[in-house]
Amino acid sequence: QTVTAASADFVAKQRKYLAPGVATYYDTPIVMSHGAGCYLYASDGTKYLDFFGGILTVSVGHAHPRVNRAVIDQIQKLTHVSTLYVTTPMVELAQRLAEITPGDLAVSFFTSSGTEANETAIAMARMATGAYEVVALRHSYSGRSALAATLTGQAGWRLGMHGTPGVVHAMNAYCYRCPFGKTPDRCGLECAKDMEETLRTSTSGRVAAVIAEPIQGVGGFITPPDAYFQEIAETVRKYGGLFIADEVQTGFGRTGRAFGIEHSGVQPDLMTFAKGLANGHPIGATIATPAVAAAYTKPTISTFGGNPVSMRAALTTLDVIAEENLTENARVQGQRLREGLEELQRRYPMIGDVRGKGLMQGMEFVRADKEPAPDLVAKFAEYTRQNGLLIGKGGLYGNTVRIAPAMNVSAAQVQEALEQMAEALARMTAEEPELARLSAD
Ligand code: PMP
């Protein structure tokens, strides 16, 4: 596929007028024009099967007619009042979140992004506990404010803003590259034990919270065993801290259950949401137990937080997920996708690891001795794009492929994506025959 003169022009304009740090995929950026369901259309007419969904944001598909109708209807009535007044959609969404989240999570605060949702959660945890320090996990991603960038466990995403005081990082459970050299079935969860070690060595001994993604998104879909969360939650609570589940990527059915943390049975004290909640409309939400929320009494405002347009988009997205049984579809199609990726792994030893839950599946690309191979991921992304498929990249080493289509993806679309991926892998192997001879370690 070649870039047309018009889009080359457009790309030049983009490079001139948009900040250079903006992360774009592909050497010749794709100029997107419109979308429908699992498909995206570029301005040069190329049709793409979208298996990244705007980084897990388009949860029920691009331009979903029901979500669009709700948004248009709301825009015609009222777009904004700030939090000086309340609107029905805002209260309705808060009630809906209380009904569908586990345990006694019940009180919400709305913002416009995942970054703000996490900032709010940390503020609430600090006010509720009277403690200041926070434990985050290595390889995590929390957002782009100074605090959220400091919580983020990857230097590359910190925007040079690392340094907000009171944040320490504990080991995550990265089983494919276990820092203790163990294998998952007989490891004694050394990584979870590091939580206590971190609390004892690197904090004052009293902390406000631990913040954890049930599956680390930007970190490369690193998927800890359920027992890891049980153990770290118990440990942090022993030191007075709350458990914050960052469900920005894993929430609302994506993993085959309503929330990612539910697989582990841990009851969080706070949960944060953004991305897929409103199917692409700007939103952030923090939900807390009544006891935690009761401490959040300092005057605060978020100008666009809780705006009725985003609230209606979210309410309708949640209706679609419930009525069309999309959590179950994420489980079933996720299983199909997973089996297909494991089949590819058996054929192509450059796929070192396949991991994830539901429609959140990742593959780590390696050379001999598990050496991270970001160049192979870049090539794979380019070749799948040439085949008409969009996938994501990620991971601390940039060597993870992230796959997360809209939750109403069909079996045929999963099959089509797997075939496009197989074709890209075959082409890469033809170009570099040694890739077929790696040890499948
Ligand atoms: N938490 C997680 C787990 C995320 O993946 C992201 C975004 N990638 C954020 C927080 C920050 O969200 P936003 O970009 O909306 O600020």
Describe the structure in your own words:
- This protein is α/β, with parallel strands linked by helices.
- 38% of the residues lie in helices and 16% in strands.
- It has 13 helices and 15 strands.
- The radius of gyration is 22 Å and the shape is globular.
- The model has no long low-confidence stretch (mean pLDDT 95).
- The site of 4'-deoxy-4'-aminopyridoxal-5'-phosphate has 15 residues, from helix 5.
- Keywords: Aminotransferase, Pyridoxal phosphate, Transferase, Transit peptide.
Layout of helices and strands:
Elements: H1 5-17, E1 32-36, E2 39-42, E3 47-50, H2 53-56, H3 65-77, H4 88-100, E4 107-111, H5 114-129, E5 133-137, H6 146-151, E6 167-170, H7 190-202, E7 207-212, H8 226-238, E8 242-246, E9 270-273, E10 284-288, H9 290-293, H10 308-323, H11 326-347, E11 351-357, E12 360-365, H12 374-386, E13 389-390, E14 392-394, E15 400-403, H13 411-431
Parallel strand pairs: 3-13, 5-6, 5-7, 7-8, 8-9
Antiparallel strand pairs: 1-2, 2-3, 4-10, 9-10, 11-12, 12-15, 14-15
Helix pairs in contact: 3-10, 4-10, 7-8, 11-13, 12-13
Bound molecules: 4'-deoxy-4'-aminopyridoxal-5'-phosphate.
4'-deoxy-4'-aminopyridoxal-5'-phosphate is lined by residues 55, 113-115, 118, 141-143, 213, 217-218, 246, 248-249, 274.
